[in-house]
Design a protein that fits this description.
alpha/beta; 2 domains; binds calcium ion
Length: 174
């Protein structure tokens, strides 16, 4: 199982990488909100641990955009914001769980495992943005009356475009 950590504090990412790899997970790290959102579109990502205070795109925006493209992907928010209003706002915005810094790694690990146990439901397969529809299961895209089949990289790019229709994607992002 692969966990994507979107977090900009190197001490925390190093700590999480070591702990999660020791627990048997594949770990990907992104320190920028935009790059984190792009990475989260990959089909091999099973869960996201998301910081809120991020350069590029704030974590709240990453969460909101991620919910339009991968609504079933488990997301655990990891943040220093501990007010009840912050927790409620992020849970209502689509977070599956909320862990406050400083945190216990064993508790975070238990929450990750619990979320993954309950995330076997199928994801929605049709994404749409700007008149384009993408079926992520068959990798078929449709624009008005036209239709074409996407290779895996193209499917990833199309999914990223649906997540961030106002931003250019580089080939290296896919
Ligand atoms: Ca931060």
């Amino acid at each position: 199982m692969a966990v994507l950590v979107i977090e900009d504090e190197p001490g925390i990412t190093d700590f999480l990488r070591r702990g999660l790899e020791a627990a048997g997970f594949t770990v990907a790290i992104e320190a920028d909100g935009y790059r984190g959102l792009l990475a989260a579109q990959r089909d091999d990502i099973d869960l996201v641990v998301l910081d809120l205070g991020l350069p590029g795109l704030p974590g709240e925006q990453v969460l909101r955009r991620l919910r339009t493209t991968r609504p079933a992907l488990p997301v655990i928010v990891l943040t220093a914001k501990d007010a009840v209003s912050d927790r409620v706002a992020n849970l209502e915005a689509g977070a599956d769980d909320y862990v406050v810094k400083p945190f216990s790694f064993s508790e975070l690990l238990a929450r990750i495992r619990a979320r993954l146990r309950h995330s076997d439901q199928p994801s929605p397969v049709i994404l749409s943005a700007g008149g384009i529809e993408l079926d992520v299961r068959t990798r078929r895209a449709r624009v008005e009356a036209g239709r074409w089949d996407c290779r895996p990289a193209s499917s990833c790019c199309s999914r990223s475009c649906c997540a961030m229709p106002d931003r250019c994607c580089r080939r290296s992002d896919c």
